[in-house]
Every structure is written in structure tokens, then in C-alpha cells.
Amino acid sequence: MTTQALxxxxxxxxxxxxxxxGAISRFEDYQRLYQASLVxxxxxxxxxxxxxxxxxxxxxxxxGEGPEARWFSGGRTNLAYNALQRHIDQGRGEHLAxxxxxxxxxxxxxxxxxxxxxxxxxxxxxAQLAGVLARLGVQAGDRVTVYLPIVxxxxxxxxxxxxxxxxxxxxxxxxxxLALLDRIEDSGSRVVITADGGWRNGKEVPLKPVLDxxxxxxxxxxxxxxxxxxxxxxxxVPERDFWWHELVAANHxxxxxxEVESNHPSFLxxxxxxxxxxxxxxxxxxxxxxxTGLTAQYAFDLRPGDVSWCTxxxxxxxxxxxxxxxxxxxxxxxxxxxxxxxxxxxERVWKIIARHQPRVLYTTPALxxxxxxxxxxxxxxxxxxxxxxxxxxxxxxxxxxxxxFRDVVGRGTAPIVDTWWQTEAxxxxxxxxxxxxxxxxxxxxxxxxxxxxxxxxPNGVAIHGEGSxxxxxxxxxxxxxxxxxxxxxxxxxxxxxAVPGGFNTGDTARRDxxxxxxxxxxxxxxxxxxxxxxxxxxxxxxIISVSAVAESAVAGVPDxxxxxxxxxxxxxxxxxxxxxxxxxxxxxxxxxxVGKIARPREIKFVDSLPKNRGGKILRRLLRELATxxxxxxxxxxxxxxTALLGGTKPA
Length: 651
Ligand code: WTA
Description:
Layout: H1 27-39, H2 41-48, E1 62-63, E2 70-71, E3 76-77, H3 79-89, E4 96-102, E5 114-118, H4 119-135, E6 143-147, H5 153-164, E7 167-170, H6 177-187, E8 191-195, E9 197-200, E10 203-206, H7 208-215, E11 223-227, E12 241-243, H8 244-250, E13 260-261, E14 267-271, E15 279-283, H9 286-298, E16 307-310, H10 317-329, E17 333-338, H11 347-356, E18 360-363, H12 365-374, H13 377-381, E19 389-392, H14 399-409, E20 416-418, E21 453-456, E22 467-473, E23 483-484, H15 488-497, E24 503-511, E25 517-522, E26 526-529, E27 532-535, H16 536-544, E28 549-559, E29 563-572, H17 579-593, E30 602-605, H18 619-628, H19 642-645
Parallel strand pairs: 4-17, 6-7, 6-8, 7-14, 8-11, 11-12, 16-17, 16-18, 18-19, 19-20, 29-30
Antiparallel strand pairs: 1-2, 3-13, 4-5, 9-10, 14-15, 15-23, 21-22, 22-24, 24-25, 26-27, 28-29
Helix pairs in contact: 1-2, 3-4, 3-5, 3-10, 4-5, 6-7, 9-10, 12-14, 16-17
Bound molecules: 5'-O-[(S)-ethoxy(hydroxy)phosphoryl]adenosine.
5'-O-[(S)-ethoxy(hydroxy)phosphoryl]adenosine binds at residues 271, 316-318, 393-396, 418-423, 444, 505-507, 519, 522, 528, 533.
């Protein structure tokens, strides 16, 4: 079990911030609504869904249980209609929907690229691209892989798919060809949308060449739509490849938004688990929309006219939900930034805030720690007065980091909304209502409406009151995943059978005397590096593909900068002598098969790995050794207890 050292709950309880008219501003009101959501869910959700546009209202709010639970059945709606057209229908077509800034700066340190779109402009771009995709044969239910940098065309591509009822599958632009190939093949995408390249740290990151390489290994993809962005020459496969701007210029039809059933799949998001390759988490339409739209309001207090800056890449769930859909469903303006936030230096972050005046800043503890290390001078030099609400996600936030964020970035008054959730959850699940819930630094506090968290011991026995254990979710919630693409069995086994009593989150958590929840870390073999979710199995598979390697085990260890870091233990084959060459080959294998984000902090060459008598590698011992330098826990199940302790030799 990975547990990050969190201090005993601080007795410091920060009163909620004073809200704007209309915001829930009393703790009793939160409690009352939460109770109502549990006592009569049908009635509660029927009221909550009123603000969305339905071509047909759902008959029932919730049907079925556990893995079969389905929300808003019989309803017909469209995610893109709700994110764009609804606001135009309501007279907000000229409101700002999207602001984009890219990293390049001129001699005076001013950004070279800034673009803004109103709701009407964004809708037009989306409807145009939807027309193009329809011409390429994309229909409702078809999967489209999107491999783009953070440019306006990334949300446009997502929304164009949603407009048609097609299923978008956004792949992180930092992934190598093999990781991209896996995701294209597993999703069965016949159309891929990409760009010539993107910008990162002043350099061009090639994208089309990576896709070309992936496509040499499959003939599944019939068409590639290429955005011209960095202007770098790219190679071309006639009949297969088309320029985005040429297709759009030649298109004269704008399809009407598809009226899809509530549980029609809207997107896939590949994410890591304990075993095997990343799995395609499938999200539906209405449940995802309702929880995303409502939490954009309840957690982040977003309203039309507000600018929201979520620093997450739209290729991860945080970006899908709170860089793209959440702010747009709330009618607010979303700010997106392409490139490295420290380019050309860390001052960039504060300049972006001063320039675009976001009301909300949503980011990760890893980034806040990086800002902290740079000191207070930079944030204090800039105008951050627009910021009224700060939020955190992805890993536990240490109280000292929480306090710094509030004092220095939030000028001592902005509420810190620590949101716990996951790819499978669709949208935020445990978080304070910013104007109602008293805050405890380091705690994600209390559940959202309808969310029933439980804490259980490893046998699934519920722990009531104070205590810690595995975090489960005991009732279906609207944003919950529909399943795992192509793998219904893995869905049921991983999430519904592993821990009795509910949905297995894979996390451990503690409940304090006030019922506040404190997330402790992952209970499984998932490692969180800079908020990125990595699976040990994926990294191990890359390592053992190196011919010199006999065996390998990977563990996550606490790291001050990245939250957790990857540590790789490797046993070389007897004939492999050259550790330096093996190290190089291992790093290359990880980079080309999993991606640079999975690079280990350290590779330790050992004589053998600790295993139990059944031959299972005991990662928990590796983690303990790497974290504390010794092993104190029970090693009675170990096959050869001298293996590890005596066996490490310097790399
Ligand atoms: C971790 C990201 C502590 C947790 C939205 C979870 C957190 C995993 C928090 C999901 C938080 C997320 N405090 N830990 N506020 N939010 N986590 O799928 O371990 O990329 O299971 O989704 O991140 O990561 P994922």
C-alpha cells in the first residue's frame, strides 16, 4: 500500500469563502441537499438536470445496480449541443468560450500566439469539422483518435465528434508511436486527427511522423486529418492524408447535432491499471454531462463571464472534464496553454494569469510545489487579483503546500477546492463546496451529491466512523464509467469484484471524526508521477523487452518534486555484463514503448527479486526498501529473504 505521510488532521478549520449570490453558502444547505440526493435520488436528479438541453427527457434517473447501473435512460441529448449551442440559444453567442495562448514569445517577451473564440465562433468551427468528419464516413458510435497538441483544434475535434455522436479517443501528444498504435488499434479508429507538430520548450515536437510510424503497423486507419500548426514539412500518403484547412474549405454541409441516447458512449480514455496494457475507460453521454456541468458550478462556482484556467492537458481526464466540457457546459470561458509552463521561465504562469484574468485556477500539487520552490517574489510581482478560487487534483496536497497556495496565490482568502476523483469517475466526487464547506488543509473533505464513499478493510468489511482502509463508492453516481472498451470482464473484475461492497477506487483513505476524507494514496500498483497515472506492468513489459534483461520489477516511491517516482529493479541475464549499455537500452525501451513520462528516477541492478513461494514478486518490499532503506515488515512469505537485502549491488 502506498501511503504518503500526511499529518494528523490539522485542527485549523478555515471558514468557507463568502460566495456570490446564488451560490450555496451555508454548510447546512450542503448537508440538506446531500441527504436529499440519497433519500430520493429520482426526485433530486430530476430537478438537477433541468438546466441541460434534452431532445427528450429521461424516463428514469437511475436504473440497475453495480456495473449495470445506467443513468437517465431513455433521455436524448447531445454533449456538444449543451456545451455550445445551448448558450447561443440563450443569447450568449458573443460570450468568450475559449482563449488559447502558445508558449513562443517575441523579443519583448510577449506571446506570439493568442486566439480567442466566442461561443458562436467555436460552434461554427465545430459544426464545420463535424461536416468534414461526416464526409469521411464517421457516424454515431464510430471511434476517432485525436493526437493533437494543446491548440483550439483539440477541443474543436472533441466537440465535433460529440456533435456527431462519434466517440473521441484523445491520445497524449507526448506518447510514442507504439503507445499511440495500441490506442488506435484497441479503439478500432478508422479516422485519426493530428497535426504536423506542436511546441514544447521552444522546440517542435513532431506528431505526424510519429503517427506515420504507428500506421506502418496497421491498415485499420483509412483517413488522417492533419492540422497545419508548426509549418514543418511532413510526408504524405495520398488518398489517406488530408489537410484540415483544405477539407474545411471544401465542406459545405453542417450536420445537425445527433440526438443520442443518454448512455451512448461519448469518449474513450486509456488509463493505467495494475495489470496489462492501459484500458479504455468508456464514458457515456448524459451522466457524464450532468456531473461535469453541475460540478463546474458547485465545485468551481463557474458562471457565464468567468474565465477558468485548468492547467491539465485535455488528453487526460482532468483536461477533458475541466479544461473542455466543464467550463463550456457552465457557459464560462476556458483558457488553454500550449507548451511548457516554465517557458521561457517560471514567471510565465503569473503573466498568463495577469493577462487573461482567470477567476479559477485548477492545478496539481506537483505544479504548486514547483512554484513554491521558485519563491514568493514572482507571484507577488504580478496582478493575481482576478483569482477567486483555487483548486487541486491528482495527488494528496500536503497542508504546507495548501497553505502556501492559499496565502501567496490566493492572497489568503481564496478557498482551496481539493477535488478527489479519477478517470473512471468522469467528474469530481469528493470536494468542498467553496462557499459552504469549512476547509481542512490536506483533506478533500466531503462527497458530492449522490456520492457515497465507504472505507473497508482488505476483506471488504466496512469501517464505520474514524479509520482508514480501501476507498470504495457504495452507490452508482451519474458520471461513472460505462465499462472498459472491448473488455467487459476486466471491468467487472477490476472494479466490482476486487473489493466487496462497491466500486473499487484503488485508493486508500482515512475518515476523521468529522467524516472528512483524507486520501492517502494508491492501494494497487498504479504510480502517480507528476499527476500522470502509470502502471507498473506497462513499464516492466518495456524493460523485459530488452534482451539483456532477465527479470524486472517496478515500484513507486515518494518524491518531493513529482509526488511519486518510478524505481526499477532489474536482474540482468548472466551473460549480460555491461550495466551501462543495459541502462541505455532500458531507458530507450521505456521511452519508445510507454513514453518519456515513465522514465525511472533510478534503475537498480540486483541479483534477484523478492518473491513469495508462489513466485509472485513482492513489490511492497521493494517499495519499503527504496523508501526507508530497510525492510521491517513481515518477510515470512518470502521465498529467499536474503535475495533482496544481500543482493543489491550498486548500479
Ligand atoms: C489520485 C485524475 C489525492 C488518486 C482526476 C486517484 C488524488 C488517481 C486526488 C486518479 C486528490 C486524484 N487527492 N489523490 N484530490 N485526485 N487523486 O485517473 O490516487 O489520472 O485514484 O484522475 O489520482 O488519477 P486519474
